[in-house]
Design brief:
The protein has a two-stranded antiparallel ribbon with strand order 1-2. It is flat. The longest helix has about 35 residues. It folds into two domains: about 35 residues, no CATH class; about 55 residues, no CATH class. The protein is mainly alpha-helical. The protein contains three helices and two strands, in the order ααββα.
């Protein structure tokens, strides 16, 4: 089944939400919430566990959290590129 806006409830919900609020402000709020989650550290299947010590200044904590956020998304982009390369190789074979 091909999803279009007529039969995809998630897309309809997203369109309704976008019509009711300032999407730039909402996106900024969500981005901040995600970045704030890196304040204590990070652990996922791509990244090894990295903890940020609690005894550092708030400025240093923010700097390290931002660097950790950038590291995570660089790894996500690299993984996505690997999958795309593998997909292309399978399609060519």
């Amino acid at each position: 089944m091909h999803f279009t806006s007529e039969n995809n409830p998630a897309q309809l919900g997203g369109l309704a939400a976008n019509a009711q609020r300032d999407t730039k402000a909402h996106a900024e709020m969500m981005r901040r919430a995600i970045q704030d989650g890196y304040q204590t550290g990070h652990d996922c299947r791509l990244c090894r566990r990295i903890d940020i010590p609690a005894d550092i200044t708030p400025e240093e904590r923010q700097r390290r959290a931002h660097a950790l956020w950038q590291l995570h998304w660089a790894r996500m982009r690299r993984q996505k590129a690997r999958f795309a390369t593998q997909r292309k190789a399978k399609a060519a074979a």
